[in-house]
Amino acid sequence: MSKTQSAIIVGGGIGGAAAALSLAKVGIKVLLLEQANEIGEIGAGIQLGPNAFSALDSLGIGEIARERAVFTDYIAMMDAMDANEVVRVDTGQVFRDYFGGPYAVIHRADIHDTVWQAALKNSLVSYRTATKVVEVNITQNDVEVIDEKGNSYKADVLIGCDGGKSIIRDSTLNDKPRVTGHVVYRAVIEREDMPEDLRINAPILWGGPHCHLVHYPLRGGAQYNLVVTFHSRQQEEWGVTDGSKEEVMSYFDTIHPRPRQMLDKTTSWRRWATADREPVESWGTGRVTLLGDAAHPVAQYMAQGACMALEDAVTLGEAVKACNGNAIEAFKLYQAVRIPRTARIVWSTREMGRLYHAKGVEREVRNLLWKGKTQQDYYKALEWLYGWKEENCLQPR
């Protein structure tokens, strides 16, 4: 195949919307298929590092995203047992100058809308909702997907952006998820309900024994995002179910009163039993590849899930350009640079979860790890992560 003319993207989340925009910008006609009745995002807040803003700038929507985001003053980890600060990374102007972009927090729906509205403005992007793909057929000349109603769609290439439980991944790799045993509760708290001493313009993580909490402002400080995570006492299955305040409180009964007071403020008790997957050597065959959580589902401990999906989308478009429009060759290049980087994210995230949830002597050691570190030390250690940009995206990092 020479120049790729058309692509099917399965999944309309942040990664799928960004992939549609990226491929359309390099002249590929995109059909996006979404199984939900509407294209949009649910949930609460997410964090965006400088690498995410580099990707958004590349997609032409960086300024819109900046207008909707809250720039943070710093990132901090607190000890949930004694309420002492363990580490703080300043994210003000010096940080922004060092990495060429800010650290910010934003409502998930706002960043999705920013990407998706830009994609819709491109005449090469079309979409169908209420379309659940159930079958994938790869031929020498094209890729066909069939939905549950029997409708068939064909294109030159296929990109699976359909999340951690990806149908496209199952059709090509058929590997099994790794259930972490960690449960997450997420909620949004209105400003007037947020404890005054925790109305902080920063993502604050409170690390406790086998548990942690994270909070940060949204929408100009009108709301606050709260994420509560703990190691479950029971065998978990990957998915979302109803939870309870009583369950949450039972895992946080020994932590300091300052972070624990937030648990009385939320009325949302949906629980996510989380999972990731072991990194693999390939995300597809020939005309098929994966992107975002479909390619590299990851726990939330480094706040890089959406950031990696945005990086993926930009890298895919740049690979197509580098390969003169030949998407099959571009998929090889894309995977060659993205698989090692995202594998590092998956494995690093697991280790961060261990640090956050340390107890006993391990907690004491954790609290000593950053003693004496300067802000420059932190920035240098984060260069591999936040130093990603369009101009270096096809180089191993």
From TrEMBL:
Catalytic activity: 3-hydroxybenzoate + NADH + O2 + H(+) = 2,5-dihydroxybenzoate + NAD(+) + H2O
Keyword match Thylakoid: no
Ranges for domain FAD-binding: 7-344
Organism name: Xenorhabdus bovienii str. kraussei Quebec
InterPro entries noted in UniProt: FAD-bd, FAD-dep_Monooxygenase_BioMet, FAD/NAD-bd_sf
Gene expressing this chain: mhbM
GO function terms (MF aspect): 3-hydroxybenzoate 6-monooxygenase activity; FAD binding
EC number(s) given by UniProt: 1.14.13.24
Origin superkingdom: Bacteria
Matching SUPFAM superfamilies: FAD-linked reductases, C-terminal domain, FAD/NAD(P)-binding domain
Protein family per UniProt: Belongs to the 3-hydroxybenzoate 6-hydroxylase family.
Highest classification ranks of the organism: Bacteria, Pseudomonadati, Pseudomonadota, Gammaproteobacteria, Enterobacterales
Protein's recorded name: 3-hydroxybenzoate 6-hydroxylase
Cofactor(s) for this UniProt protein: FAD
